[in-house]
Amino acid sequence: MTGLATALRVEAAAWRHSTVARLTTPLLVLLVPAACVGLVALARSGAIVGAGGAKLVGLGSADAATDQLVAAGQVLAVAGLMAGGFALAAAFGAPLADGRVGGWFALAVPRDVVALARAVVVLAWTAACAVAATVVVVACAATTAALDPGVAWDGGHWAAAGRAVVAGVLSAGLALPFGAVATWTRSPLATVGALVGTVAVTQVVVMLGGGAWFPWAVPSLWTGTGGDAAAAAVHGPALLLTAAVAPVFLAVLVGQWRRLTDV
After folding, report:
1. Which residues cross the membrane (predicted)?
2. Would you say 138 and 35 are in contact if contact means Cβ atoms under 8 Å apart?
3. Could you point out which of 19, 52, 94, 154 has its C-alpha 20 to 30 Å from the C-alpha of 226?
């Protein structure tokens, strides 16, 4: 446990100073809330018509504060996966691609422990960004509600905020398989390709009606991206299956790095 604690401290410090974290953190924490407020404003303005308007119709069915919180869940369901996937591609694919990982074999801490610490740090960072983004959206929604005399902040708003947090954390966990992909392919670019491919496959699965049990589709559907009927089709077991992806692939990743010999 001492080795893991040391590795976590070192990896957390390294991640805080990494280019990926410095660029992506403000994008997640600030751009996601801006997108939520903007999407709700567009939906309520009626300026977007056709296919685009149909996709935004669900964001104009309640008061503006609730709609902003619902939008937060929908945006974070995708943003958490994409940010986490890109981060893991950089965290594991880049050292393998350029040979820097050879130094891991000389460390006192075993390389599988280092890999575990690195994955946990990236997962915690992605989840923390999702929580922080939701907090910003809550502040925006509370301001919106305060400016609307016909809206009182209540438990429904907190429930929507809680769903947004859960969707963001679930999507962060769904990115962990791409750490295993990066280790297997030894290529950040191939990992990003797998991430984009997964998003495309998810769309196909949803169109075929299997999204309620496909982990990478569950957060988006649960937050109402596919409409109320699709959200109602996502039950507790599907959410548990989605949550199980993170620990399963964390174990896979650790096993990969424990067996890694050819660098």
Report:
1. 27-49, 69-94, 115-144, 164-185, 192-214, 234-254
2. no
3. 154
Q: Model confidence at 54, in pLDDT bands (50, 70, 90)? A: very low
Q: Is residue 248, in this structure, part of any structural domain at all?
A: yes
3-class DSSP assignment, residue 215: coil
**How far is 164 from 130, CA to CA, in rounded Å?**
8
Angle in degrees, CA 115, 121, 127, rounded to 5: 135
Inside any domain, residue 224: yes
Q: How confident is the model at residue 45, as a pLDDT?
A: 67
Residue 211 lies in a domain: yes
User: Measured between alpha carbons, how far is 238 from 40 in angstroms, rounded to an integer?
Assistant: 28
* % pLDDT > 70, the chain: 92
Query: How is residue 107 annotated by DSSP?
Result: S
DSSP letter at 174 equals: T
- Write out the residue range of the structural domain in which residue 14 sits: 2-18+75-133+154-259
Residues 6 or more apart in contact with residue 61 via CB below 8 angstroms:
67
Residue 109 is which amino acid? V
What's the total number of domains in the chain?
1
Distance between CA 115 and CA 104 in Å, rounded? 10
Residues 6 or more apart whose Cβ sits within 8 Å of residue 146: 153
pLDDT in tens, 179-227: 999 999 999 999 999 999 999 999 999 999 899 999 999 999 999 888 8
Q: How far apart are CA 26 and CA 59, in angstroms?
A: 25
Residue 229 in any domain: the answer is: yes
CA distances (Å), origin 2, targets 8, 31, 107, 109, 154? 10, 38, 14, 9, 45
